Amino acid sequence: MGTPLGSVAWIHGARDCRQSTDPLIQVHPLDEDTFVLRVSKCFSFEANFLYLLLGEARAVLFDTGPRPDPGAGDRVLPIRRVVDEIVARWLRCHGLDAIELVVAHTHGHGDHVSWDREFQGRPRTTVVPPTLPGVQRAFRLPDWPDGEARLALGGRTLTVLPIPGHEDSHVAAYDPRTRSLLTGDTLYPSLLTVRNWPAYRRSAARLARFAEEQEVAQVLGSHIEMTREPGEAFPLGTTHQPGEHPLPLGAEQVAELHAACEAMGDAPRVDVHDDFVIQPLG
Ligand SMILES: [Zn+2]
Ligand SMILES: [Zn+2]
After folding, report:
1. What percent of the chain lies above the pLDDT cut of 90?
2. How far apart, in whole angstroms, are the C-alpha atoms of residue 217 and residue 262?
3. Are 39 and 13 in contact (CB under 8 A)?
C-alpha cells in the first residue's frame, strides 16, 4: 500500500529524546491485512519491529516489544491499544464481529516478550508461552528443530519453522500472501549474535533451503542496527539512528548467510558483511 517497505521513513529516535514527538509505536500497513509496527528508539534503544497479520478466523502478533530504557521513565508500551485499534478497524471493514488473536514470538528474549501480560485475559486470545516447550506445544512441532507447522489464519496460512541458534525457541514465519519471511533476530540488518553456533548454522541452512523452495520477496527481521554504509553498524545502544539500513533483506542475503556459516564451518568468528555482521558469542 503506497510506499515500498524498503523506503518507509521509520521513526528512528532523536538526538534529544525529551524533545521527540514521535509516537511510541509507528504503524505501517504492508497491505490491508498485514501491519509492521515499529517501537520508538526513544522508548527502547532496541526499537523492535513487531508484526500483526490478520485472517478471517484469527490474527497473529509476532512479539510484544521491549521494556522502556532506564532513561525513558516508567512507561507502558501501548501495544495492546494499537493492536486492538487495528483489529477493531479491520473487523468493521470486513463486517465481522470478532476474530481470535494469537500472541506469538519470534523468540523468548526480553525485548520480544515484555508486554505479553497486556494480552493476558483478552477475550479470544492465546498467548504462546515464550519457552521451547511452550512453542513446541502451541505450534505442534514435536520433532524440533525439524519439522514445520502451519498456522491457519483463515484465507491465509503461515508456515512456522524452527530456527534455533540465536535463542533456543526461535522460529521463522513465512507468509505466502506478502511473500515475507519473518526472521526475528536470526537474520536482519544488524549484529547477528549467535549463542549456539551448531544450531545457528543448521538454521541458516534451513532458511536457505526454504528460500530456494518458496518465493521470498522480503526477509523481515526484528531490528535495524546497520547504517546505509556497507558493513557499518550504529554504536550499540544508540537512541538516534539517522540513515538506517532499509528493513527488508532478500533471499540473496539468506543464501549469503548460509554460505558464510558453511565457510566458517565449526570455527565461527566475527564476520562482517555489507548488510549484517555475524557475531558468535562465547
Ligand atoms: Zn534476541
Ligand atoms: Zn531482539
Report:
1. 95
2. 24
3. no
Mean pLDDT of 150-175: 98
- Closest ligand to Cα 222: 2
253: CA distance to ligand 1 center in Å? Answer: 19
* Closest-approaching ligand to the CA atom of 64: 2
Residue 280 CA to ligand 1 centre (angstroms): 13
Tell the CATH superfamily of the 5-280 domain: Ribonuclease Z/Hydroxyacylglutathione hydrolase-like (3.60.15.10)
Q: 214-241: per-residue pLDDT in tens?
A: 999 999 999 999 999 999 999 999 999 9
Residues with CB under 5 A from ligand 1 (ion): 109, 185
Domain-by-domain residue ranges, the chain? 5-280
Ligand at minimal distance from the CA of 112 is 2
Q: What does pTM read for this prediction?
A: 0.97
Q: Which residues contact 14 (CB under 8 A, 6 or more apart)?
A: 20, 22, 41, 42, 239, 240
The pLDDT value recorded for residue 97 is 95
